[in-house]
Amino acid sequence: MLSFFQMTMVMEYPMLSLFFVIVSTLPYTAPIFYLKHLANRNWTRYYVLVHTIAYSLCATFTTSTILSAHIGSPSIIGIITNAFIICMGIICFTTLLTTIRAAFAVSRYKSTAFMTRADTQRRRRLTCFLVYCIPMNIICFPVIVDGILACLFPIFPRSLALYSFAQLSINAQFFANYFRTFVIGICTLTALTPYREAVRKLFRCQRSNGSRNGVSTVTDLANRVNVIDNAAVTQSKISVGTLHRMSNAES
Known about the structure:
The protein has helices at residues 2-29, 31-37, 44-71, 74-108, 117-139, 141-152, 160-191, 193-250.
């Protein structure tokens, strides 16, 4: 069950990114097709279809792996694993290629006076999404390398160079997983304005609270110093009066 959820998490993100980038790029690359088939339709069923494909593929791979493990045939497990890696490599490569192509399409598309508000919002939304997902797709580049190696291993099973590249790819994925959270945070703050404004307000509130706390702390210290000074002055007056009375009594 854990393997199924892990596969689903790995597969769903590039598939959903691929679908959104393709659909958002169609107004620039194929506007007639977009207006005819996608402009005035609900995209919910398409998202449901993408989720269904991802769940079906992951369930197929997971079930086949479990059955092969119970049967005791490691060769079938290896074939299933290679098939999953190749499938992931194809999806990640297609997603990366599509996002780069979409970035070029958006950058070359010039704004005109005939652009409606919906066109401007659509372009801004696609630009923000590209800024968000392109670094994440670049981080998934080792998965593409794994897909290529999975295709080459059956052809060259004894190649030491392929094993060396596989080890480098594993190390690259290991380090990419460490930096993934940091990259997601930077991309989110860079591309998505609501998150960026929320962080600004958060730091602004903390800064104002800190300055207020600092002012109140200084005020409290000043009041305490004044109290101590007044107490010291009062004590000195009492001491001086006592000494004066004692000297008068002795005289």
